[in-house]
Structure formats: C-alpha cells, structure tokens
Amino acid sequence: MFKTLIFSCIFLLQFYTLCFAESIGDLLKNPEDFSGKSVTIEGEVIGEPLRDKGGRWINVSEGEYKIGVFVKDPRVVEKIQSWGSYKQTGDYIRLKGIFYKSCPQHRTLGIHGEEITVEKRGLPREEILKPYKAKLAAFFFIICLTMGLIYFIKVKYGKRD
User: Fold this and answer.
1) Is the pLDDT of residue 106 over 80?
2) In Å, how far are 38, 45, 100, 130, 159 from 41, measured between CA atoms?
3) Could you read off the pLDDT of 22-64 as tens digits, one per residue?
4) What is the C-alpha to C-alpha distance for residues 94 and 79, in angstroms, rounded to an integer?
C-alpha cells in the first residue's frame, strides 16, 4: 500500500512537471521535454500583435526570456489592453496552450495559445530625467553649437585663393 502511494505521488509529480511549465525559461532550456504538450505560462505581453494567416502572434516576456504565441481567435487578443514598450508596462497574462519545439504549421518554436487570462493590467512608466543628464546634454549642445558656428564663420570668411 505504501509503495503504491509513493509510486502514485511520483507519477503525478512527473505528470505535473510535463504539463505545466514553471517558466518560459524552462520551455526554452528544455524544449524536447515540453514539445507537443499543454503548458501554462505567465508573463508580460510586449510589442504589438502581428497578423498572420489564420490568427495573430503575440510576444510574452518573463524577465530575460521571451516567446512567441500564436492565437487563432482574434477576440482572445482583444482582452489585452496594454502592450509593453519603453513607455508602458504591458498586461500580465496567464496563458494556456500547446508548446511546439518546431511547429508543423509555422516551422518555428512557439506556443499555440488556447486561453488567455489577464491577471494584471499594464501601466504607463514614468520617465525620470536625472539632473546631471540634463546638465550634460546642455553642455554638449553648447559645444556643438559653438563648433558649428566656428565652422560656418571659417567657411564664409576663410582664406580664399
């Protein structure tokens, strides 16, 4: 009885690790282990949706790892309001889909998304300009302006043969 319980726990643990990715990094580091299997990932949507024949591509980022997700139903993509960029944080989503090391349809590594849940909405990023950078920019602007003025004076009143 005890051996059966331990065997069942080990089997369920292996099944869980094969069906649910811990992170996008896990998928990208070990694509053979997850290829063709259902996975669930979380991350920030970045960029913008790209149209493709039969659906849309979105990019999901989790720290330094990023992955492309193909979604057939464009209404699923409409749930996303904020797309990550330099000036804005994108929506944080949970996505369920099938991971492919080499998708037969697109011939690339990616996920065919089936269900998207928005966990947290994105926000605009505040850009803070540090005072020393503003002073440095003004200093270089004055130097460039002075050099340009010297050049034009030299061209206009320079020595002529």
Assistant:
1) yes
2) 10, 12, 14, 36, 70
3) 689 999 999 999 999 999 999 999 999 999 888 999 999 999 9
4) 12
User: Would you state the CATH architecture of domain 2-120?
Assistant: Beta Barrel (2.40)
Token pair 């990932």 is at which residue?
A: 41
Are 119 and 79 a contacting pair, CB within 8 Å?
no
Exposed, middle or buried, 66 (CB in 10 Å: 0-12/13-18/19+)?
A: middle
Q: What are phi and psi of 141, to 5 degrees?
A: -65, -45
pLDDT score, position 16: 52
Q: Pick from 17, 90, 127, 106: which is nearest to 56 by CA? A: 106
State the average pLDDT over residues 83-98.
94
